[in-house]
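Budget justification aside, the reviewers requested a transparent look at the raw inputs and outputs of the sequence design task funded under Objective 1. We therefore reproduce one unedited record. The lines immediately below are the structure tokens for a 114-residue chain.
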């Protein structure tokens, strides 16, 4: 039951309340039709998904600095948290890029076939 975003507060509720769910489309033709129809919603969620991990990285950088300032012996903990956050943000960016590419590809395929 998800379409374009992992964060329900920012974009799932206002944008996707009247749409079909992306996970129910199993055939490639249905995915093309779905993403061509609801591409604006998907791209809006991808846009918000690019902003949110950026804010997470800013928070994690500050948190790492705070731990380092509090106790030099616990610097490894701050570095570990920052590294895990960096991996999460990287995977989120990759997933969002693939989802945006699906929308662009679906609109390109529809333009070629019409």
């Amino acid at each position: 039951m998800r379409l374009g975003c992992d964060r329900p507060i920012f974009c799932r509720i206002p944008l996707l309340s009247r749409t079909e769910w992306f996970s129910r489309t199993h055939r490639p033709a249905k995915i093309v039709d779905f993403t061509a129809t609801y591409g604006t919603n998907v791209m809006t969620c991808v846009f918000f998904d690019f902003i949110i991990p950026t804010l997470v990285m800013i928070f994690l950088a500050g948190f790492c600095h705070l731990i380092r300032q509090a106790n030099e012996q616990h610097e490894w903990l701050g570095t570990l948290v920052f590294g895990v956050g960096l991996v999460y943000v990287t995977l989120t960016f990759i997933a969002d890029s693939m989802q945006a590419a699906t929308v662009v590809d679906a609109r390109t395929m529809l333009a070629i076939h019409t």
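The helical segments are 8-15, 28-37, 39-70, 75-113. Residues 35-113 form one domain. Computational costs for records of this kind are itemized in the attached budget.
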